[in-house]
Description:
This protein is an alpha+beta fold. The protein has helices spanning 14-21, 25-51, 86-93, 110-113, 127-131, 173-202, and strands at 2-6, 68-70, 78-82, 95-97, 105-108, 137-141, 144-151, 154-162, 165-167. The strands form 3 sheets. Strands 5-8-7-6 form a 4-stranded antiparallel β-sheet. A 3-stranded antiparallel β-sheet has the order 1-3-2, with helices on one face. Strands 4-9 form a two-stranded antiparallel ribbon. A hairpin with a 2-residue loop joins strand 6 and strand 7 (144-151). Helix 2 packs antiparallel against helix 6 (173-202).
Amino acid sequence: MIVRVQGAKEFKNGQEILKKFGKQIPYVSMRALNTLGGEIRVEEIKDAERVFTIRRKGFLTNPRTGFMRKFASKENLTAEVYSKFGPFELHESGGVRTPRRNANLAVPKRGNLNVSHSKIIPATKRPAALRATNKAFMKRIKGTFGIWKRVGDTIRLLYAFTKAARIRSVFHFGENAEKLVNKRYKKVFGQELSKAIAEAKMKGWEIN
């Protein structure tokens, strides 16, 4: 999953900017793109924390699972924010999740587990732990194959086994990035242009 931000956008006074500061444009574009790349990464991490239950500290900044950046240069005016973690892409596009190695997906019945959707299912209530104890058993009952538990005179389904599960589109990675770029690019470019001109003047460089 990847989003790219490329320069440069159009400005009403674009010709005037090119005429006066033409040599500075690649450098300014590079800085603006990298600033936006950083902002996008921060917003994507915030959105992921809102949408998903993150179990491990550092998960969203880990190079294998989190959101990383590729910086723009003057020679390549493209900044990238990306994640190698496949499930993020599935939750963006929506689709069907299938298990590995012809196994089953265990879909939790959180009400029967007494765990709300906003909470992490504790290790003691996950399939492997339940099956390792006498608190639950695996069986097909009334056409549903899963992990069940006897509570008094009733039997409650804790996990239903299925060959596939439909994933809803809940993570708007590309859409969020596009909105931020459309909102912020011109302002950030202007700020970076002003900084570059000021820095050049302090060094006594000729600005043209």
